[in-house]
Write a structure and sequence with these properties.
This protein is mainly α. The chain is built from 6 helices and 2 strands, in the order ααβααβαα.
């Protein structure tokens, strides 16, 4: 086992984050997006989500990473459906989803299948009920 693997991968992830931050800055500085509400927090969330699924930290999401991502979200898709999603996001230009295409999809007005799935995942998180026994309250906290 290579002891440098973890450190090298960590450096790769740090470089990737730096690169994605520079792309986010381009979106923040772009007058086209100046009316977008809460743009900075949205871009930060997109960056985290993108980095989570860019499995090799190479700067793009390929078909296998997309497959893993959707399976993790409980929305498994066939190979053909995955190819169709990538084509939808990239406009048929590439076989991988780069960060710029990912952000354009998330900020865009069109409803891409992937965007709908990711938005559904966020809504599902909001609806999750806390597990376990309710927290103890003293009499002064009761309504």
């Amino acid at each position: 086992m290579n002891p440098q693997g973890g450190k090298a991968f960590g450096m790769l992830k740090a470089q990737q984050e730096e690169f994605l931050d520079s792309l986010n800055k381009e979106f923040l500085d772009d007058p086209k997006y100046s009316t977008e509400e809460d743009l900075a927090p949205k871009l930060e969330m997109f960056k985290k989500k993108y980095m989570e699924f860019d499995l090799n930290a190479q700067g793009d999401i390929d078909i296998m990473a997309l497959k893993c991502m959707l399976e993790k979200l409980g929305a498994a898709k066939t190979h053909l459906e995955l190819k169709k999603m990538i084509t939808e996001v990239t406009g048929g230009v590439g076989e991988t989803i780069c960060y710029r295409d990912f952000v354009l999809m998330m900020l865009g007005k069109r409803s891409a299948i992937l965007k709908i799935i990711l938005m559904f995942e966020d809504m599902k998180k909001e609806d999750e009920k806390p597990a376990g026994p309710p927290p103890k309250k003293n009499i002064s906290e009761l309504p």
